[in-house]
Amino acid sequence: MSHNTFGHLFRVTTFGESHGPAIGCVVDGCPPGLALTAADIQGFLDKRKPGQSRFTTQRREPDEVKIMSGVFEDERSGGQRTTGTPIMLMIENVDQRSKDYSDIRDKYRPGHADYTYDAKYGIRDYRGGGRSSARETASRVAGGAVARKVISGVSVRGALVQIGPHRIDRKNWDWAEVDNNPFFCPDAKAAQLWEGYLDSVRKAGSSCGAVIEVTASGVPAGWGAPIYGKLDAELASAMMSINAVKGVEVGDGFASAALSGEENADQIRMRHGKPEFTSNHAGGILGGISSGQDIVVRFAVKPTSSILTPRQTVTKSGEDSDIITKGRHDPCVGIRAVPVGEAMMAIVLADQFLRHRGQVG
Length: 361
Hints:
The protein is globular and about 70 Å long. By secondary structure, the chain is an alpha+beta fold. A hairpin with a 2-residue loop joins strand 8 (155-163) and strand 9. Helix 1 (38-48) packs across helix 7 (337-360). 24% of the residues lie in helices and 23% in strands.
């Protein structure tokens, strides 16, 4: 299998399967001299790990990261720091239940990558999907934690803004609320509504989709490149690479099609000796290059395909069949996609920062 690496100068290569002994990543291109310990990474993994509420899969994975290479502890340098060599991060799998999938080893799960993997490779890991499992995203979160060290002056934050048909009220947006509920929701009232809605979805053995918004503050003007290295193009690629993502938009995105030219253009005035925009319909990116405003990206996650409702499918040998996907699954996989979206934003920005520095100094 190819294409397991993302990035150019800052590169993250992930490895491992859902039911294998371990997963992880190798981060290449990280500058030397950055303070980095397992604790710096663990906090972000804790946001993504399963089993933290009744609204996520009950698979019990501690997701404890181990730094296997790329750092050195020297008393003269003031603790453990990156060396500039590849950083290998490993997370052991400890709560696999492969027997949950024995009944479907020869059946293709609708909505999953079972059929397409088999069609491409002639073999598939039926135990949770192997590499196609969302378990792989823990490796991205670990890599994203390292990326944040590279762009230490940038704040990357994510929030869930819609579950199923229920959107937040943006007038109630409060970043402090994101850590006060199991949904990473910035609207306390919406979070209460979602609790009842998701309980009903979960009890029905069904699932629902979600929309996640990720914002980066503190990115200076100038990151990104015209034409084929556009910042928004690479952010879209990063978000679309996340499991179950079916749509990405930057700034106002699809809603900008309904605006007039007068409404959409972000006007500029001089404030405190520098240009300042009066709005941010563009999501902080113009011509593929950051404008200095907040970078705003949203992505839509489809409903979890593993559900208890019988679905029609076919077997590997070409027979019609029905399938019920047992096991431990998220009724809304979009919840745990929030820290994954943050990580991919950080990885793209770290890569773009190093490329910008390399070109213009």
